[in-house]
Structure formats: C-alpha cells, structure tokens
Amino acid sequence: MKFLICGGAGYVGSHMVRYLVENQHDVVVYDDLSTGHREAVADDVAFVHGDIGDAVTLWRLFATHKFDAVMHFCARSLVGESVVDPYQYYRNNVANTLMLLAAMREAGIQRLVFSSTAAVFGNPRSDTIDETHPTDPINPYGQSKLMIERVLADAYRAYGLRSVALRYFNAAGADPSGIIGESHHPETHLIPNLLRAVLGNGPGLKVFGDDYDTRDGTCVRDYVHVNDLASAHLLAVEFLEENEGAFTFNLGNGEGFSVREVIAAAQRVTGREVPHAIAPRRPGDPPTLVASSLQARRMLGWQPRIGVLDDILDSAWRWHLQPRY
Ligand code: UFG
C-alpha cells in the first residue's frame, strides 16, 4: 500500500515510517520540521517539506501521488504549553487538521489513522481506562485531540471517511536499530529525562510529586513501546478495509508503573544510579493513567511485542547512548 505520513519526522511518526518500509510499503513523509528531525527519515524515503495547513502543497501532493491511506502524526503535544498558548494548539491541531481532511476529501482518500491521546480522558474516574470511559479533557491539548475525534465521527456520517483514532498512553522506547529514537526540544518526558540524568547530561531528574494517592506516592503511567504503536496503525488501516466508521481505540500495555518504579527499572537496565530529587507536583498530571486495550487486541488483532518495562527502557537506553539528533 502507499501511505502519506504527516508528521513522519517526529518521534512516533518516524518509527511508523521505518515500520512501513520494513513491511514493504510505499511511503511519502510530509513534515514541516517544526518539532521533527530530517535525520529521523532515511534518505531513500520520499520527503516533502510542508505544513498540513498549506492547502496548495497538499493539493500538489495529492495530485502527484495516489495514496491508499493517510496517517496523521502532526501535532503540538505539550500539555503545559497548550495551557499557556491555546491558540497555537487549536490552530495546529484542529484548524490545520481540517485543511488536511478537506484536501483528502477532494482527492478521494477514504482512510485515515489519527494520533490521539489519553489526555482526552482528563482526570480518569477509574484506574483502568477503556473506550467507554467518559472523555473530559482538562487542557487545550486534550481538547484539541477530542475535537478532531468528533470531527472524524461527523466526517464519516457526512462524507463516508473511514478513520481510526488511536489514543496513546505513554509512548516510550526506541527502534532496536538505535538509528531513530525520542528527541524533543524541550524534553519533558520522564524516560528521556531520566536517561539523560543517568548520563550526566543536564540536571538530575526531578520527580514531580511524591504525595499522590498511589502505591508509592508518585504518578503511575502505562508505557507502550513506540514500535507497538506503529504496528497498531498498520492494523488499523487493514481494519478499515473491511469496516466502515469512525473508530477509537486505547493503546497501552494495561500495566501501570510509578515514577519510582521506572527509576528502579532504569537502574537495573543501565547498571547506574539515576540522580534524582523530589520536586513539587507538575500541574495537570493525573495520579494514574492505565489503558485497557482489550478492544484493540480483539478488533484489530493488536499484540504488543515489547511489553516489559525493562525492555522498553533498554531500547531507549541504546538510543540515548548515541543519539543521532
Ligand atoms: N515526570 C517526572 N519528571 C520528569 C518528567 C515526568 O517526574 O522530568 C513524571 C510526570 O509527572 C508523570 C510521569 O513522569 O507523572 C510521566 O510523565 P511524561 O511527561 O513522560 O508523560 P505524561 O504522562 O505527562 O504524558 C502523557 C502523554 C501526553 C498526554 C498525557 C496525558 O505523553 O501526550 O500523558 O496526561 F497528554
């Protein structure tokens, strides 16, 4: 199949591209490189520099290539930044996505896989979150993703667009090749910050809060390997060949680890101490976020391969020892 990967130079998008190429699919990457890295896309993969809000470039792209499906990874994704500058989030994540959807409609492309997030749930009302859990985002980032989920439901009813929104819990790890990995500027995520602290790059790790109502007082998250997210996207496109509608699936391993447990695992994997200190809570962090992914397993046939936290950390560690960007 031939895919347009919007945001294919970003963390999850670049792993998706690699996964598709390894599975003999044809790929064009479309990325404005505002947060992604050109080095994350292999030289022999077609790359178009552009923004999904740019109707002219999109039109040209769709006139040149005949895509079977689009995968959409372009988004601003920092919760704190979204609170400070919501217009940026609504413009990039909502308005620009509408431009992409309109261009797809004109080009007659009927399948889309959209990157959504656990942030659509806000403060969860149960420890394990399945797709029936109410959505109630508590920040503009989560709102922007939920808005597009709703647009996709309407787009199916009105135009027959088939879509799957995949709500990632905590994307983590790196491709075992060590060629691509997680690199954000600024970096806010636990695992990269923790591994940089191990390597002595930057300040020691700050643990945001140890007084939550969890087993050891630190926040609990469900870490899912980035290549397992990639496999879910391809299964989602295959699912849309047989099924019509706008679907949503939660993606996680179904097991939560506290920040302290992640630190302990990182010490096992690296064989080194993780310098860290307790800091105040970070605003907007729910105490526990753990997915039920039974739907994705049942309906998509999804089976995470790197489900053990130490293995996820090990893949991230290999990247952090020799980051290329
Ligand atoms: N944490 C630290 N120190 C750090 C970074 C993180 O203690 O330097 C803690 C956080 O407070 C949180 C946990 O580690 O308890 C995980 O934090 P991340 O920033 O790695 O990930 P989040 O759970 O905040 O983010 C994820 C997704 C977002 C989504 C959010 C919903 O990456 O896309 O869940 O709450 F919006």
Automatic annotation (TrEMBL):
Keywords: Carbohydrate metabolism, Isomerase, NAD. SUPFAM superfamilies: NAD(P)-binding Rossmann-fold domains. InterPro entries: Epimerase_deHydtase, NAD(P)-bd_dom_sf, UDP_G4E. Pathway: Carbohydrate metabolism; galactose metabolism. Residues 4-252 form the NAD-dependent epimerase/dehydratase domain. One of its GO terms (molecular function) is UDP-glucose 4-epimerase activity. Homodimer. Belongs to the NAD(P)-dependent epimerase/dehydratase family. NCBIfam families: galE. This is UDP-glucose 4-epimerase. It comes from Luteibacter jiangsuensis. The gene is galE.
